[in-house]
Design brief:
Order of helices and strands: HHHHH
Number of domains: 1
Structural class: mainly alpha
Amino acid sequence: MTADSPSDTGAERDVGDDGPRYVWLTPDRQATVRTILLGIALFAGLVVWVWHSLGAETRPAALAGKLRVVGVMTWLYALVQIADMRFWHSSISEKRRLQSGIPESVIGWLFGQMLACFGIVYYGLTEDARWYVAGLALLLATFAIFPIRRDD
């Protein structure tokens, strides 16, 4: 017995330029995806807050310093990609969008989610919620920067 390949599930259309790959990702479902992304970020932040309120240990300052370097690199990467998708529209951004078949708005939201997730990890290890709050704020900003497009 063999499993069906992803293309046999009906969730995808042809990969060519003639249409979107994920036909199930309608504007209504994009709203659901956006809500789920926000819910995950808020729930994970709540879990970390409860964990710290129970008296969890924090990590040494050396780890926090290394995490800050990773955080700065992550933020720079995400901000450049968001600006590219929103303003510059480079060939790399267009290739990524065409190859994935995912709407640009969802890709933008995922960059915002990436920053919120880094903030959750940093908050969990250091008890410093600033990176999480900033990531959550940028996630909310991506919802405004990349609205759901209703091309009906």
